[in-house]
Amino acid sequence: MSLDTSTLYLVATMVAALLGVMLLFVGRQQKIPALYWWGFAYLLGAISVAFWTLASAMIGEALSLAVNSLGLVACAMVWNAARVFHGRAPSWGGLFLGALAWIAAIMTLPPESEVLRLTIGAAIVAAYAMLTAHELGLERRTSVQRNWPAMLVPLLHGFVLMLPIVLGDLLHVDTGGFGTSIWATLFAIELVLYAVGTVFVIFMLVSERAVTVHKVAASCDPLTGLFNRRGFSE
Prior knowledge:
This protein is mainly alpha-helical. It has one domain (5-202). The protein is built from eight helices and no strands. The chain has helices at residues 5-30, 33-54, 61-85, 92-108, 114-138, 148-171, 182-219, 229-233. The protein starts with a helix and ends with a helix. The model is unreliable at 141-145 and 171-176 (pLDDT under 50).
């Protein structure tokens, strides 16, 4: 059974758009700014993948480059959302650094270097995924062992995102173009898994924060702000 790569990218687009709307809705309900970052990142990524999949042959090279750069900006927004979630300021330089590096690579590499271009793009996506894992791990402190998926899932996806590209580049098992190879199919499948897995981690963190807020409120006296009997006993 063969899987059509364009169909997989289209599925990734629809999943990302749905998850983006859901994140924006929850962010509005919970009043959490980081969820707005995550939601707009998913929507921007969905728009980028949709244009790249459906209209890449009809738009010019400059517009196609801009569309691909938007996808990298979306990955940077996911990283910045993790920073904002833990009370740190967003990195505006890092928000556009990956896209600028991608544009520089495309403009300097020859047009026939399709695999190398895709490898560089996947490396940038993987780097942002690992930075996201790093940001999520900075505030774990005493609950590191209990919340290890928050750090492991983005880190694992960063590795897996690169694996099909690197293997396809090294092994050259297909004689056709990279876009029709099994490695491109695996990359498309991983995009879907990455989108869903990251949202799972996001809602796990939001749920943990809500539980912590309620636990602190139940342990403190509302008038003095000091620990009540329950707070001292715990």
